[in-house]
# Entry
Amino acid sequence: MEEEEEVESKVVAVMDQFEDKDDSSSTVLDLTSYQLHDLDSVELAPSLTELDLTANRLSTLDPRIGNLANLKKLSLRQNLITDAAVHPLSSWNALSALEELVLRDNQLKNIPDVSIFKKLLVFDVSFNEISSLHGLSSVSETLKELYVSKNEVAKIEEIEHFSQLQILELGSNKLRVMENLQTLTNLQELWLGRNRIKVVNLCGLKCIKKISLQSNRLTSMTGFEGCVALEELYISHNGITKMEGLSSLVNLRILDVSSNKLTSVDDIVNLTQLEDLWLNDNQIASLEGTAEAVVGSREKLTTIYLENNPCAKTPNYTAILREIFPNVQQIDSHVFS
# Structure
């Protein structure tokens, strides 16, 4: 009872503050972590452009939200929203100009129908129980960011029309194959960590800047050669035995190949922009040849991880690395001023 009274008083305080503002500035309402079961005690001003209901206990959508014609951003993250509860969204035509919809961390089993949102830029349904991307084909082609991580998705599909997409997050699913990416010509970031992917297939993408394939089933690095704009590559926790296919990635700044089965450092001599190199938890036996392998980024490199390799037991290990890399700021967990 005391908890409910405390929540109610918080809501009243927020609403008082909201109402004190001039109507023209009453555009953002943030009710994050108020543990609300409903919005009965909340006034929803018609001027709202952003409504954040993160971390409450909502199991239904207040129909008044459907009248907020100026709304651009709606977050229902971390609630108790089911497929049935989210269904009214599909008929709330007054919200057709919505640009950002966050349904992350709820109880959805399917991609909801959001076809009325013709200007949608950000769509987040991560941390649900979604088993298929079926339904994405009706999502607006204006989309720039799509997040479907931590679900049960087994196939990349119905994304071909997202030619404006810049970020695609499908980590922590059940994907085995990289496919249907070829039309995502503006894609900048691809996050596919914690899946079951064995082979890299970027379907001809050349403009991408960040790729994560951590914790998959890769045994080879080949497949990245055409990604000449790539700046960050994360492929730790796989079964890769050889560094290869990297020489064309001349814009690479961050390379994480930790926790693999590498025995030597290879194919990165051309990477003159490399700043961070993570090689820890491999089977690299010796520091011999390392200087030659990274000669291109010798001046640029500021961070290197080699701990938990046999070579890390070399006498004067840290001193040798600091000599190889004159501008290094961090070796393993040791930070230098």
Summary: The radius of gyration is 24 Å.
